[in-house]
Design goal:
The protein is an all-beta fold. The chain is 0% helix and 48% strand. It has no helices and 11 strands. Strands 2, 4, 5, 6, 9, 10 and 11 form a 7-stranded mixed β-sheet that branches.
Length: 123
C-alpha cells in the first residue's frame, strides 16, 4: 500500500507558477511510475503528465506541454509538477497517482491515488 500526499496547490494569477509535490510513504517509491491528473468542476478527470520510475522519460498532455514539467526525487520519495504560465483553464483539483506498471494516460491503470490539491488560476 502506497500513501500519497499532494501539496503546493493554491490561488495564483494567470501567468504565474506553482509547484506541486507528491510525497509517498513507500520506501520503494522508485519502483512506481507516477502520474498527474486533474479534475475541474463538472468535468471528467484528465491526464496531465507522467514520469517513468527512473525519471528519464516524461509524458504530457498537449494542453500543458511546454508549460508543465514533471520530475521526481527518488531519494526523497517525492514527485513534483512544476506549473508555469498558468491559465484560468488550468483550474482544477490536481491528483498524483502511482502505478506498478508503465506510466499511461489512463487513470484506471494507476494503483494508488493522493487526496488531491486545489489549484485556482484567476484571470
Amino acid at each position: 500500500q502506497v500513501h500519497l500526499v499532494e501539496s503546493g496547490g493554491g490561488l495564483v494569477q494567470a501567468g504565474g507558477s506553482l509547484r506541486l509535490s507528491c510525497a509517498a510513504s513507500e520506501r520503494t517509491f522508485s519502483n512506481y511510475a507516477m502520474g498527474w491528473f486533474r479534475q475541474a468542476p463538472g468535468k471528467e478527470r484528465e491526464f496531465v503528465a507522467a514520469i517513468h520510475w527512473h525519471g528519464l522519460v516524461t509524458y504530457y498532455a498537449d494542453s500543458v506541454k511546454g508549460r508543465f514539467t514533471s520530475s521526481r526525487d527518488n531519494a526523497k520519495n517525492t514527485a513534483y509538477l512544476q506549473m508555469n504560465v498558468l491559465k484560468p483553464e488550468d483550474t482544477a483539483v490536481y491528483y498524483c497517482a502511482a502505478s506498478t506498471s508503465f506510466p499511461t494516460v489512463i487513470a484506471g491503470t494507476y494503483n494508488y491515488w493522493g487526496q488531491g490539491t486545489q489549484v485556482t488560476v484567476s484571470s
